[in-house]
Amino acid sequence: MATLSANCLVLMANVLIPVAILVFSLGFFPFKPLIPGLATFEESRNAPPKVFDKVVFMVVDALRSDFVYSNNSGFLFTQSLIRSGAAIPFTTYAGSPTVTMPRLKAITTGSVPSFLDVILNIAESDTSSTLAYQDTWLAQIRASGEQLIMYGDDTWLKLFPGMFSRADGTTSFFDFTEVDTNVTRHIGRELVQDDWSALILHYLGLDHIGHKTGPQSSHMIPKQHEMDSIVAQVYQAIEQKPHLQSTLFVLCGDHGMNDAGNHGGSSVGETSPALLFISPKLQALELDRRSPVDAVRELQYYRIVDQTDITPTLAGLLGLPIPLNSLGIFIPELLEMWQLGSQRMQLLLENARQLLKTIKATYPTYSFEDTAVTPSCHSGRESGVEKVHCAWVQVQTLLSIRDEVGKSSSQAEIESALLRFLKASQDVMSSAASNYDLKYLYTGICIAGLAVLLSLPATFGTLSRYQHPGLFLVAVILAYGAMVFASSYVEEEQQFWYWVFTGWTSYMHVKNFRFQHGSSSTATGLVPRFSLSALGRISAVTLAVSHRVLRRWNQTGQKFAAEPDIARAYFPNHQGTFWVLVVLTYADIYLHLAEGFPSSTLWVLTCLVVTVIAFAFKLVFAASESPELMNESITRHMATSLSGIPLILHARLVVCGIVILLILSTLLTRVERKSCKKPVSSSPVVHEALTLFLMTQSRATNVPIFLILRQQLKILASMNLTSVEILVTSLMMQYMTFFAFGGSNAISSIDLSNAYNGVGNYNILLVGILAYVSNWAGPIWWASASKVLRSKTAADESRTHITLLTFCATSTLLSVMAACTALRTHLFIWTVFSPKYLYTMSWVIIHHFAVNLLGEINLLFAVAI
Amino acid sequence: MATLAGPPAQPAAATPSSSSSSSSSSSSASANPKFAHPPVSILPSRFARIYALAHPALLLSLVAYRFSSVTNDPVAELLGDIPFLVGLQVVFVMGCLPPAGGERDSNSAITETTPRKPTGPKRRGHGHSAKVPSWSTGLASLAWKLTPALLSLTLTTLLATPILSFLLVLFGAPVTTHHALTFLCAAHMALLSCFPLIYVHGVDGNVWREIWGAARPTDAVWGGALGTCFGAWFGAVPIPLDWDRPWQAYPITILTGAYIGYAFGMWLGRVKGVFGKRINFAPGPEQVRDLKVE
C-alpha cells in the first residue's frame, strides 16, 4: 500500500514538471510591450533635412571587426577609404543571441530582440517572427513611397514579406562561393537602375567559411578580397553615377564569430562585428583616418557603438522618422553632417522623445512628468529608470534656460545632456533585469520544489537500499545543483560530467575488482583467483580509456572549443582511418542486426540492404556537407557515383528500411514464439535498429562513436551491475555523450545539419524531432542501452528507474530555475543561464518524458504482454 | 595547518603504550584473522612520533612557500622541488615507518601465512623497549633502512610515475600537450603516495592487489595514498572556472589538492576508530551487493 501511494506521488511529480516549466517560462522570458504602428514626425516642418536619398546596405554575415580593420585583413580598398575619410569605421556591439535573425531585428527595428527570437530563429519559417507589422527603417522607406531591393540571405524575405520590389533570397547551406555569386550577379544591373531607395545585400559565404573551417581558414582572406571588391564596385558607382550621387553605403556584419568560427553566444569575437558608413560626402568630416590600426582591446577597433544605433542613424541621415521601438542613439560622429547646431539638436531631441516614449511604454506606472528634481538626482548613485528621469529633467531644464536666454549659448551643453539621457535610456531598456515577473518565477520554483518533494519518499526508499551508488547519485545531483550557479561551469558543463564519470569509473573498478576476487575472500586473506581473465580485472580501465577517447572526440564548451579534437582536427587529416572506422561501424551494426534472427535469410538480407543504403546515405551526405572529409579518391568516387539519387529520397529510403526492419522483427518474433516455447525478446533488435537511425541522424565524424559506445556497453554488461548502478551509469553516460557528440549549453552548438534529412516541405514538428534526435543521439542511445542492460531484470526495477529518473529530472529542473532566478541580474543571464534553461527544458520535457519515461512504460507493456 | 597536525597526537601517543590499534596488529591479528596484511603503524620511537606530525605540516608549508613560483614556471619549479620532496619523504619513511619485511616480522611472524625473507638481521628490539635507541643502533638501523628506501625510490620513479601519468591522462590530463607537466605531476603524486607504500609493503603481490582494489585497511600510509588520489581528483574542480587566475592552469590545482589530500589522509588514517577499518563490499540480500563500511 505504501509503495502504491509512493508511486502515485511520483506520477504527480511528473505531472507537475510541465506545469512548473510553463509557469516559470511565463515569468522568465520577459514580454516587451511593442508600440504598434509607424512613427511620424511630430512637427514635420521642424525635421532636419535629409543628407542622403538612397542607401546601399551591405551585410556580410559574421563580419568580425578584425576582418576589416586589422593588419592582415583582405579589405584593402575599404581600408584605403577609411584613410581618405570616405568611410567612418566603428565596432558594433551585437548583444547575445548572436544569430542572424535577432541581429537583423536589432539592425532594422533598433530594438533588443527578446530571447524567444532565438527559438524562432531555429524555427526559421515561423511567420510570427515577421517584422511586417513592426516599425523599421525599411517600413519607413516603404511608407515614403520608395522601393526596396534585396539580394542575399532569405531571412530578410521571411522578416519582411512583401517588402521588396525585387529580391532574390539565398538559403544558407554549406557552400562558400555560389551563395555569394548569386548576390553579386545582380549588383551591376541594380546600380544602373534609378527606381530604388534602398538596396540590401546580405552575403553568407564568409559565415559559412567560419562555421566550416574557422576564422583562420585559408578560404578567409580570398573571401575578404571578394567582399572588398564588391565594396569597391559599389563605391565607384556612387562616385561616378549621377543618380547615386547622394547615396549612403553601409557595410556591416550582423554578428562576429568565435575562435572556432561559430556564433550565438556572447564572447568578444561573437559580439564585435564591424560597421562602416561610406560615402564621398563623409570626407568633409574630420575624423580618425588611421587604417589599419591595432585593437584598443581584444577586437575593439575605433569607437564602439551599439548595434541598435544603426536604426536612428540611418533614419536621421535619410530624413525618416525614427522607428517607434528603437533603443538606438544617433551616432554623434555623423551629427556633423548637419551644419546648423539647431538641426543637430533637433535630431537628438527627436531621438530622445522617441526613446522616452518606449520607456513610458515599458514603465507605464512611472511618471516622467514630474519635473521637480528629485533629491537623489545629484547623489550620482541613482540607477535604472530614476537615472533616466534625472537626465530627462536636466535636458528639460537646459531647454527652458535656452528658451529664456537665447539660442546659441548652451548648444554643446544641451547636446551632451541629450546624449547622456539617450545613453541612460538605452542602458535601462537593454538591461534584462527590468521586466521579469517574479511572481511567476517563484511560483514556478515552488511547483518544481513540490515535484521534488513528491518524488522524495519513493526515491529515499529506493536509495536507502543501495547505499553507495545511491549516495553517489545524491552527491552528483547536489553537486550539479551547485554547478548551475557558476556561469563558467554552465558553459563548460561537459567538464562536470567527465569529472564525475571518472569518479564513477573508479567506483565501478573497485567494486568490480573486489567482486571478482570474491568479497568474502578479502576478509579471510585474499586468496587470489588466477582463473580470472586479465581483461576482466582491468575492464574498468578499458572503460576509462574509451571514456578518455570520447572526451577528446569533440571539443565543446567555450574555453577550449577551438582546441584540436578528433572530429575536426584528426579526421580531416586522416581520412583513411576515418572511413575505415565508419565502414567498421556499419559492418558492426549489420552483424548485430543479423544476429537477431540468424536463421531467417530474409531477415539477414534485409539487414544487409538497409545497412548498405544507410552507409551510402552517410557517404553522399558527407560529400555534400563536409567535403573536407572526401579527399580520398575511393570515397569521393563512390559518392559521385551515388549522387544521382536526391538526398531527400535517399534519407526517406533509410527511414523506410529501418521501419521495415522493425516490422519484420515483430513478425519474426511472433513466428519464433509459435514455433518454440522459448521466449524471444526483440529488444536488442530494436536497439540495433535505433542505433542505425541515430547514426543516420549524426554527423559523419560522430558515427564511429557508436562503435566505442558498444564496447562500453559490453564492458558494463560484464560487470554485473545492480539496477541502481545501471541507472547511475546510464544517466551519467547520457549527459556525457551529449557533450561528447559536440553538444554544449550554447545555442550556437545546436546542430541542424541533419534536421532536414528527408524533409521536403518545411514541417516544424518533423524538423524539430529530427533536430532533437541528431543533437541528443548519445543520450537516446544510452536510454535504450540501459534497457538492454536490464533486459533480464524484473519489471519492478522499471518502477525504481522511473522513480529515480523523476527525482533527477525534478531536482535538476529546480536547481536550474533557482539559478536563473537568483542570477537574473547577472551579466550572463541571456547568454549563459537562459540557454541553459532552454536546454534543461528539452532535457526534462523531451528527453525525460519522451525517451526515458516512454521507454520505461514501453518496457512495462512488453513485460505485461 | 595546526588543526591538521594537532589531533594525531593522541592516537600516535596512544598506540605504542596501550593495547589499541597499532600493537593490536599483532595481538588482534592472532585473535582475529581479519588482516593477512595488517595496517602499518608509525614506529614507536620519539622521533617517529614527532616527525610523523611534522611531516605533513612541512610538506604543506613547502607547497604554500613555493606556490607563487609554481604558478610562474611550473615545469622548472616542480622539477626543482623534487629533491626537497624526496628528502622529506625519505626522512619520513626511514624515520617513521617499518620497511618491507623487516620491522613487522618480530611481532607478526606468528600470523604470517606466507613466510617472508627478512632483508636484514633483526637488530632492533621490540618497539616497546626500544624507545630511546642508542646512537650506534640508530645509525646501524639507518644504514639498514637505506637499501629499501633506495629500492622503493627506484621503483617509484620507474614504475609508479609512468603508471600514475597514464592514470592522470585517463582522468582527463591532456594527451597531446603538457607531457612534462603531467609526468612531473605524476612524479610528485607517486612520491607522496607510492613511495611510502612500496617502502612499507615492498612488492608483495597480495598487498598490491589489495591496493588496486582499494581494499587496504586504513593506516597512515594507505590513508595518505588514498588522500593523494582524492585530493588530486577534487583539485581538478577549479580549472574550468572563468576566474582567469594563473594558478588555475593545469596541473597546479591538482597537485595542490594531492598535497592537501595526502596530509589529510595521513592524519585521518591514524585517527582512532578509522585506523584499521576498510571499505568492504558484502553481497547483500537478493543478490544486491551493497557497499558497507565494516
Automatic annotation (TrEMBL), chain A:
Keyword set includes Transmembrane: yes
Signal peptide: none
Family matches, as InterPro entries: Alkaline_phosphatase_core_sf, Phosphodiest/P_Trfase, PIG-G_N, PIGG/GPI7, PIGG/GPI7_C
Keywords, in A-Z order: Endoplasmic reticulum, Glycoprotein, GPI-anchor biosynthesis, Membrane, Transferase, Transmembrane, Transmembrane helix
Membrane topology: Multi-pass membrane protein
Name of this chain's protein: GPI ethanolamine phosphate transferase 2
Transmembrane segments: 9-31, 440-463, 470-490, 576-594, 600-621, 642-669, 721-742, 762-783, 804-833, 845-864
Localization (cell): Endoplasmic reticulum membrane
Function: Ethanolamine phosphate transferase involved in glycosylphosphatidylinositol-anchor biosynthesis. Transfers ethanolamine phosphate to the GPI second mannose.
Presence of the UniProt keyword Thylakoid in the record: no
Family listed: Belongs to the PIGG/PIGN/PIGO family. PIGG subfamily.
Pathway note: Glycolipid biosynthesis; glycosylphosphatidylinositol-anchor biosynthesis
Domain GPI ethanolamine phosphate transferase 2 C-terminal: 433-860
One Pfam family named in its UniProt record: PIGO_PIGG
Protein's organism: Aspergillus lucknowensis
From TrEMBL, chain B:
Record has Membrane as a keyword: yes
Keywords: Endoplasmic reticulum, GPI-anchor biosynthesis, Membrane, Transmembrane, Transmembrane helix
Low complexity compositional bias, start-end: 11-31
Record membrane topology: Multi-pass membrane protein
Residue ranges of the region described as Disordered: 1-34, 103-132
Chief location: endoplasmic reticulum
Subcellular location: Endoplasmic reticulum membrane
Pathway(s) it belongs to: Glycolipid biosynthesis; glycosylphosphatidylinositol-anchor biosynthesis
TM region positions: 149-173, 179-200, 220-241, 247-268
Pfam families: PIG-F
Top-level taxon: Eukaryota
Biased composition annotated in UniProt, kind: Basic residues: 119-129
Protein name from the UniProt record: GPI biosynthesis protein family Pig-F-domain-containing protein
